[in-house]
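Whiteboard transcription, Tuesday session. T.W. wrote the structure tokens on the left side:
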């Protein structure tokens, strides 16, 4: 595949970035301040040549275990938990106020932020205690938000029966939050966790809002945010105690580097992101020709870096030798979940990614499986089995003779049909970006005879979606322009809609 074609590079990059970003390790292993920013990350070495940017690779150097690296990670963990839990408090306060005032539009606007906040909180726990804890905590936090919004509506209406029902749901959600964490660690008791996760401070805020006491409501909000900071400290201390190895020496250096690299990805800093790779690893992963100048590579990566954003769900350093390390991690890339294994090598005082391997994502417990066959040039899957609100795993199997991908897109309700959108994109030529009415969600690739699981981080909501394959033929024509695309709808009834797959679905 030619990377000189911007459309091809952009598409390949979107697919590769889940693996790329997941392990672009350690931009610098020098001692870091806890509040280090992208500007503290060293840029590409100044000895790069004008034509390719290639540099002489020094021999591997021994990385000395650093207790300071572990201290930095512990401080960063506490700061991140404090930020997330306090954000949760203020988001709930805003949504509760909107519900009390009957402004459903504002509640709807805040709902995705609350959902993302809950996923991020759960992802931190999942990094250290596994996927089950992450999913249990995420669903419990979502249930608590739902119960608090129900309570706010009931308080606004003066409906005491509905208030009692909402309180019962709130107590159940609090219990589930406590159980999800206490079952994972002996560092906290269920009673301690229930005390800090108690929903009643939130209901008092809502009561003040409903009674038109804004000053009292704000005071209670600030007090609750203070409790959240104490809760964050307790959780961070327990995590550090339970995972001592992860906060010591080389392991901590690798994990700190990974988090910094994800940060510069989300900040759209292409140069700092590229600094986490060996040249060989970067060119191999992006399929970049050896004769492409480094400046051209930087420009191409700058076209797509940071979109969509990335959240780390789990990190596991499986090997951490003096001259090589291996990391397996799971992350959210846009709306999709990806797993990868990466090999890193120490170069010039930092760990750089040298090779990567995609891993199949495990289906979440209770998810609904939807088999999708990919061939030349069609998607084949069963209609009427894509309900809104359920966790769906698209199990893609390549039964064709060429490599295929399943790219999941969301399409605006008032956008033209998918055929028309693709035709307009093709007419604009190779430099055209995706239409504004289309949102990239997730993607997987499968070689002939192989399969891949496309796992989304949250259930699909109602609306228009599409499966598309942008992998080009030997002649450079993307499969989508040969008919490999299928639009479908997700509805509350589960009767998913009209597809455009050329091959009839069974």
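and on the right, the sequence the group agreed on:
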């Amino acid at each position: 595949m030619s990377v000189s074609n911007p459309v091809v590079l952009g598409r390949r990059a979107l697919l590769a970035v889940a693996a790329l970003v997941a392990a672009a390790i350690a931009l610098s292993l020098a001692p870091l301040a806890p509040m280090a920013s992208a500007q503290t990350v060293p840029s590409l070495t100044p000895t790069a040549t004008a034509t390719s940017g290639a540099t002489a690779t020094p021999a591997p150097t021994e990385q000395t275990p650093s207790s300071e690296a572990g201290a930095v990670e512990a401080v960063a963990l506490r700061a991140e938990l404090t930020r997330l839990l306090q954000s949760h408090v203020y988001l709930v306060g805003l949504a509760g106020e909107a519900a009390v005032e009957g402004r459903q539009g504002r509640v709807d606007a805040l709902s995705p932020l609350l959902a993302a906040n809950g996923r991020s909180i759960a992802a931190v726990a999942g990094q250290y205690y596994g996927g089950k804890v992450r999913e249990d905590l995420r669903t419990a936090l979502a249930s608590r938000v739902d119960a608090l919004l129900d309570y706010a509506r009931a308080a606004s209406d003066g409906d005491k029966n509905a208030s009692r029902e909402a309180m019962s749901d709130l107590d159940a959600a609090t219990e589930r939050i406590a159980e999800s964490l206490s079952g994972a660690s002996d560092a906290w008791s269920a009673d301690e966790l229930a005390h800090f996760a108690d929903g009643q401070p939130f209901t008092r805020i809502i009561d003040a809002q409903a009674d038109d006491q804004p000053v009292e409501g704000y005071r209670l909000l600030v007090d609750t945010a203070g409790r959240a900071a104490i809760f964050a400290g307790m959780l961070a201390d327990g995590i550090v105690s339970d995972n001592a190895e992860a906060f010591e020496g080389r392991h901590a250096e690798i994990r700190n580097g990974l988090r910094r690299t994800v940060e510069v990805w989300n900040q759209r800093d292409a140069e700092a992101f590229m600094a986490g790779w060996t040249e060989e690893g970067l060119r191999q992963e992006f399929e970049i020709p050896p004769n492409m100048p480094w400046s051209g590579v930087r420009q191409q990566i700058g076209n797509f870096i940071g979109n969509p954003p990335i959240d780390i769900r789990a990190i596991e350093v499986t090997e951490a030798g003096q001259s090589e390390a291996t990391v397996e991690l799971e992350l959210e890339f846009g709306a999709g979940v990806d797993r990868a294994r990466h090999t890193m090598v120490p170069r010039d005082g930092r760990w750089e990614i040298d090779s990567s391997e995609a891993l199949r994502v495990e289906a979440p417990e209770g998810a609904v499986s939807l088999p999708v066959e990919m061939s030349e040039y069609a998607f084949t899957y069963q209609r009427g089995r894509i309900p809104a609100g359920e966790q769906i795993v698209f199990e893609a199997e390549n039964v064709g003779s060429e490599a295929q991908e399943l790219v999941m897109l969301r399409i605006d309700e008032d956008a033209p049909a998918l055929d028309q959108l693709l035709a307009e994109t093709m007419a604009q030529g190779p430099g055209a970006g995706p239409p504004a009415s289309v949102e990239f969600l997730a993607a997987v690739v499968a070689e002939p005879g192989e399969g891949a699981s496309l796992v989304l981080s949250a259930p699909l909501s109602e609306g228009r979606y599409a499966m598309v394959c942008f992998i080009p033929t030997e002649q450079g024509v993307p499969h989508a322009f040969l008919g490999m695309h299928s639009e479908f709808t997700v509805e509350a009834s589960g009767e998913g809609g009209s597809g455009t797959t050329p091959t009839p679905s069974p």
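Someone added at the bottom: The chain has three domains: 6-47+248-278+288-359, 69-244, 368-490.
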